[in-house]
Design goal:
Two copies of one chain form a homodimer.
Chain A: E1 5-6, H1 16-22, H2 32-49, E2 55-58, H3 62-73, E3 79-84, H4 87-98, E4 102-107, H5 116-125, E5 129-135, E6 137-138, E7 143-144, H6 147-156, E8 160-164, H7 176-179, E9 183-187, E10 199-203, H8 205-213, H9 223-230, H10 241-257, H11 259-279, E11 293-297, H12 304-315, E12 317-318, E13 320-321, E14 330-334, H13 341-357, H14 366-376
Parallel strand pairs in A: 1-12, 3-4, 3-5, 5-8, 8-9
Antiparallel strand pairs in A: 2-10, 6-7, 9-10, 11-14, 13-14
Helix pairs in contact in A: 1-10, 2-10, 3-4, 5-6, 11-14, 12-13, 13-14
Chain lengths: 378, 378
């Protein structure tokens, strides 16, 4: 009878109305029926990505779509700046190196956000930088980057800006066209409330031009092939049909709520989470915390992995420990996609119990009072 | 109230017990619970692939897994022979060229199977061929290749043999280890009775050695990364969790039926389909027809696309027209995965009506009598 609660930054919970749609009878993908669903999904994606440009669908995880941008926008030897302040920034660096790009690594201490001034001087220092690879929300540290300023800086230097918004999209503000982001990557299993298995890339005119000249080896993860099919409301390869059916359903609720409302609602949930953690005497890990998840330092002398394990084992609540060097030092609570205010209340009600059982002391219920105040008003 | 019937060679129907599993609550992929499901899936895949070697899972369509073998087993400039007797053989050629391999094209007329003697002389003619890329069942023509003989010939010449079994696996006999096939590729949406979105690659010791030296650019579709994670019952990137849950369910029924029984059952369905088509005065397209689907020539003066359209529009039955040059000349009826004897009976009962409406003449019910005789005995 133990219920399970998914509070991890991906996969995140899939609502029942989406799960139901996944179990419908399968349809052939070269039919008017499926084409209509795909068209709805394309329109919904444009809305959620805040762009008038095509958003291409790949049947892969988010990393597959990141790879598609590297291999389809650049050529071996092209100079790119990879901004790495966590595990997913490092992935940009690894991907760019895998395709023999000439990578300038802009490394940031985990938990910090990149300084646009530093990007500016790097761009002045290195001639002919073709692209800047960066992140909206760095999932490993719970940090949101100032994409608006980074995009502006890159654009001034004539470099493409490519943003990994796999975990941030839907919660952290990203008006793609307004901020002039050339390509935005996302995945299905976070803000978009689907199981993992689909990934997305928006491509503006600059990105579409870059594609025509790119020389990296590619086939399945090819933006150009995907764009050519997109124009015909089709996909170049058999798509993950059931997930696309679910996508249409998930996008509809996001369109109904409106992005502006979502950004405010999730930022409020994030603010409440931060305040609740601090009320427990805990420190935040990020200097520029995201609206999608909150990274919290474990108390001195307690391993975050013990907190995570106990919450999951005793109460069925899954949150995430850290990654890399901070694996045992931080824990991460997601507020993204289908996760709501009551889920945070439920999580902290038992996080308090677990922290106390591991020897951390604080006033009983103090985090819940904070959450109530921020989330529901006085 | 019109019911729909999917008789296409992929996507093919997904049974209700698999569809139900797709709608379960999502679980995190780095948990013991998911790891156990993955282990079951790994064991089931080994059984279905008839191998003791690892079968790696990719979240992609079948083409993604084909690409993984090209980019992970070979290096730019490596000489490979690509056997192309249809659309999917051509895909091998395209993939190998996309990765700058030195491709020797062994082209075959559509509808025919490759002659192993011709492969032998090509291997004698070209020095240092690193690999032979071929197909079990060429879906575009309904032809099954003599993989046993092709593998023997390749092995003698010291070349790796890589087989696309996307549509054939589960129906057309393929004892991978016994025949010495180095890598077998398949996908989820055909014999394996799942929606599209997962793909698989078996890798024997030769393939595992080749991976270590391969120099093509790759990241997401990387056999080596997948193999390293496989050893830990894990995946290198977030997998399509719901599809893996469904995979476990689908594999269990295949294990219960046993592969030997399946090969006989589907070959019987294929033989019945061929006999039924011939009884209607129609000609088969393939000289070596597959157990997975049957390609039938449309009668003189009737376009196959009209047959396909009328069946779908009037009766909800989806079969497939041809591809490429034979688009309007052939139609293809699948007998794979969850499709059974009664589905064939249902299809031919209305195919007769449609053919008659388009002006083709034959004795009423003649194909049904053939099917009954072959499928159910006299």
């Amino acid at each position: 009878m133990k219920r399970k609660y998914l509070m991890t930054p991906g996969p995140s919970p899939v609502p029942a109305f989406v799960r139901e749609s996944l179990s419908r009878e399968i349809m052939h993908h070269r039919t008017d029926e499926f084409r209509e669903i795909l068209q709805h999904a394309h329109e919904g994606l444009k809305y959620v990505f805040c762009t008038k440009n095509p958003v291409l669908i790949f049947s892969s995880s988010g990393t597959g779509a990141m790879e598609a941008t590297v291999s389809s926008l650049f050529s071996p030897g092209d100079k790119v700046i990879s901004i790495a302040g966590g595990k997913f920034g490092q992935r940009w660096t690894e991907l760019a190196k895998a395709y023999q790009l000439d990578v300038v690594e802009m490394t940031i201490d985990w938990g910090n956000a990149p300084d646009p001034e530093r990007l500016k001087s790097l761009l002045e220092q290195h001639a002919a930088v073709k692209g800047v690879l960066t992140t909206l929300c760095e999932t490993s540290t719970g940090t949101v980057y100032d994409v608006e300023a980074l995009a502006k800086t890159a654009r001034k230097a004539g470099a493409l800006i490519v943003v990994d918004a796999v975990s941030g999209l839907g919660q952290d503000k990203l008006p793609t066209d307004e901020w002039g982001v050339d390509a935005v990557v996302s995945g299905s299993q976070k803000g978009l409330m689907l199981p993992p298995g689909l990934a997305f890339v928006s491509v503006n005119a600059n990105a579409q031009t870059a594609m025509k000249n790119a020389q990296c080896s590619r086939y399945y993860l090819n933006l150009q092939k995907a764009l050519a099919s997109y124009a015909k409301s089709d996909t170049p390869f058999t798509p993950a049909v059931s997930l696309v059916v679910g996508l249409k359903e998930a996008l509809r609720t996001m369109q109904e709520e409106r992005m502006e409302s979502r950004w405010v609602r999730f930022e409020t949930m994030a603010a409440a989470t931060r305040k609740a953690a601090q009320a427990l005497g805990l420190k935040l890990f990020s200097s520029r915390p995201s609206a999608s998840l909150t990274a919290i330092r474990a108390p001195e002398g307690i391993k975050s992995t013990d907190i995570v394990r106990t919450l999951r084992k005793n109460y069925g609540i899954s949150i995430a420990a850290g990654q890399g060097d901070v694996k045992e030092k931080i824990f991460r609570i997601a507020h993204m996609g289908w996760i709501n205010e009551q889920d945070l209340m439920m999580t902290f009600s038992l996080l308090e119990k677990v922290l106390r059982s591991l020897g951390h002391t604080f006033e009983n219920g103090v985090s819940l009072a904070c959450l109530q105040e921020v989330l529901y008003g006085k």
